[in-house]
Amino acid sequence: MTTLVQVIRAHVVQANENYAKLRARVAEKAATANNGKEPTIDCYGRLHAPCDGYFWEDTTYQGGAYLPFSEEFYEQLELMTGRVRTANSRRFAYSVRLKSTTKEIEELSACIGDYGVVERGRIWDDGESRYAYIKTNQKSLSDLIHTYEQERAAARKAAREAELAKLKELKGTAPEGRVTVKGTLIMTKDVHGQSFSYYDSGITTKMLVELENKSTVWGTLPTKIYDAEKGDTVEFTATFEHAKDDDTHAFFKRPSKPSILQRAETA
What we know:
By secondary structure, the chain is an alpha+beta fold. The protein folds into two domains: 4-136, no CATH class; 177-266, CATH 2.40.50.140. Helices cover 31% and strands 33% of the residues. The chain is built from four helices and twelve strands. The chain has a five-stranded mixed β-barrel. A three-stranded antiparallel beta sheet has the order 5-7-6, covered by helices on one side. A two-stranded antiparallel sheet has the order 1-2. Helix 1 (4-32) packs antiparallel against helix 2 and helix 1 packs antiparallel against helix 4 (139-170). The longest helix is centred in the middle third of the chain and has 32 residues, at 139-170.
């Protein structure tokens, strides 16, 4: 899939070409009324009279004076490039937040040019990811980034669903009713729920266990094996109920007779 940096870089190249054509058209118009003498264009794209007595939009200007743009020119300028009317303005009409990395943010900052700024959020716990905030006055650029993010999210979702479907094909049928099972502890998670007393934190530890036929079960970690860790082989009795539309996964309640048959480090 094409990267966001490549998408923005291609957009900027096209926007620069459009901007150059627009400036050339305005310069040609000015030269027609001034014996071929074109206006001076500064680094911000603004026009100046190159000499005294310069004729522009039915008015004569002194050398160096700013030449006012027509509203039509401004509208075309902002539509094509998104450049602000005031060169030092830091106000932007559009802002897009997306998950990125420090390296990608640096690349985005380098390629976006005059069409916006890229700000970065705090680094995440993984030491690499962070949010990028792309701010611009160009609606077409903002829409382009939004579309790219939607397509990327859809691609990630499709890949994840394909991966889950592939894993599901390898899984057996999860247990139902009250039975005894044995499997490998995949993970534990503290779940915040309702507290019924001052001494009750409302936190319940849940566990995900993969059984011998690769099906999975989810429910409360029995207190007797509170110290069970990922990779441990555990056995317990409980009442199981299949997940909705998925007979390879079940939820259990009222676990009893739990035991740790084998620790992960000795497996």
